[in-house]
From TrEMBL:
Residues 180-208, 217-227 have a biased composition (Pro residues). This is TerD family protein. Belongs to the CAPAB/TerDEXZ family. Residues 172-230 are annotated as: Disordered.
């Protein structure tokens, strides 16, 4: 149902998909969806802000699902479960921010709300934009025990930072070193007069402990709440035009680097009205495997993969560990792999790739997003291109260590194995790893 600015309607479902959409093209800025859970118009803590760097609320009520680009039509999706919104929360604000320009440069901008159970559209709002770099596009709010949706269309020229701080978010800004001041001329300090300590004052008599009902002592007061950690708004999106980034320059050269792969099938897009569907795949037999070829600084090589139970290790060579095998493609689970960057001096190169183990003949009907989250530094994300070849293996990203500089290179390269050649051997040949392969199973 199309809505005009300021209009509202009652929401007939509690499980909802909120879709931010636009058309991509040369010179079109990227856009990002976000949500804020408000009490009396403000967040309670920075944890009430859900966005690309903080993709899930602790209550499970709101989750950032990620982007999809289908032939130039881009969507960024939030999953909202109103039944799980805490009773104190009065409003769930749905916002968007532009990265690299203004919303006046973003064609076909819209927000729509879908019933997550049926895939039907409940509401749609197409705002008019000019110089705005952030928008409050809509909001869910409580009225007499029921939830309503309102089309808001309030713009900001101060970007995501301005929008976030307006609702009480503490933003972690990069610290820039200040040039050292010139030395001040030395001036001899005047002699200090002698100091005589005053006599201590007598302490007042101790007050009796306060008591509650029936003379029972009251429980001790809770300590003051610790302020939440400021959120970081920085991120890196790799594209064909800008395919690489230095982890070193981003400050992400220590701690753990988490690599997440999530996906869905074309059938899911149809089920959810042409866009991303439920995180759990509609094909229970589909099994994608996230893998990594590695080469260490001592020349040793190997593979981390579920096949053959070669899950690796995080605190000993190869310092790469694969989580348990997953078949859902969910953004919070999916396939996950961790690299221990505290041992970066032992890592020469890592090729992260994905294979289809079963359930599909190629990546042509699958749509995936890759996110690398260093413990320190901005997250790195990219979507895979549309697959047009009968590929069962795709190189995702190559991480190389050159003189201590860790560089992430977006590959997004679909490979077609020759008849009788495994996906692993195919990707080995393409990248010159030179390993010997034997059949394996999981």
């Amino acid at each position: 149902m199309p809505l005009s600015k300021g209009s509202n309607l009652q929401v007939p479902a509690t499980a909802l998909r909120v879709e931010l959409g636009w058309r991509s093209g040369p010179g079109v800025p990227d856009a990002d969806a976000s949500a804020l859970l408000l009490v009396s118009g403000k967040v309670r803590t920075d944890g009430d802000f859900v966005f690309y760097n903080q993709p899930a609320h602790s209550s499970g009520a709101v989750r950032h699902e990620g982007k999809r680009d289908l032939g130039g039509q881009v969507t960024d999706t939030l999953l909202v479960d109103l039944a799980r919104v805490e009773s104190a929360v009065e409003t769930v604000v749905l916002a968007a921010s532009a990265d690299g320009g203004t919303f006046g440069q973003v064609p076909g901008l819209y927000i729509r709300v879908l019933d997550a159970g049926q895939g039907t559209e409940l509401a749609r709002f197409d705002p008019t934009a000019t110089v705005e770099t952030a928008f409050v596009l809509g909001e869910f709010y409580r009225r007499q025990g029921a939830w309503k949706f309102r089309a808001v269309g309030q713009g900001y020229s101060s970007g995501l930072k301005g929008l976030a701080t307006d609702y009480g978010i503490t933003v972690d800004e990069p610290q820039h070193a200040q040039p050292p001041a010139g030395p001040a001329p030395a001036t001899p300090a005047p002699p200090m007069p002698p100091v005589t300590a005053p006599a201590p004052l007598p302490l007042p008599p101790a007050a009796p402990a306060p008591t509650g009902t029936y003379g029972a002592p009251l429980p001790p007061q809770s300590p003051p709440s610790v302020p939440s950690t400021p959120v970081r708004l920085t991120k890196v999106t790799l594209t064909k035009q800008a395919p690489s980034v230095s982890l070193t320059k981003q400050g992400g050269t220590s701690g753990e680097l988490r690599v997440n792969l999530n996906w869905q099938t074309r059938e899911q897009f149809s089920r959810w009205g042409g866009r991303r569907g439920r995180a759990a795949t509609s094909n229970p037999d589909l099994d994608l495997d996230l893998c990594a070829l590695y080469e260490l600084s001592d020349g040793s090589k190997g593979v981390v993969q579920a096949l053959g139970n070669a899950f690796g290790a995080l605190h000993r060579p190869p310092y790469i560990h694969l989580d348990g095998d997953d078949r859902t493609g969910a953004v919070e689970t999916g396939e996950n792999l961790t690299v221990n960057l505290d041992h970066k001096q032992s890592l020469r190169r890592i090729l992260i790739f994905v294979t289809i183990y079963e359930g599909a003949r190629s990546f042509a009907d699958l749509h995936a997003t890759v996110t690398l989250r260093p413990e320190h530094g901005a997250p790195i994300e990219f979507s895979l291109d549309e697959c047009t070849v009968p590929s069962t293996v795709c190189a995702l990203a190559l991480i190389t260590n050159t003189g201590g500089d860790l560089v992430v290179q977006r590959e997004a390269r679909y490979l077609v194995p020759e008849r009788g050649v495994s996906p692993q051997r195919t990707i080995d040949r393409a990248y010159g790893w030179g390993m010997k392969w034997t059949p394996g199973r999981k």
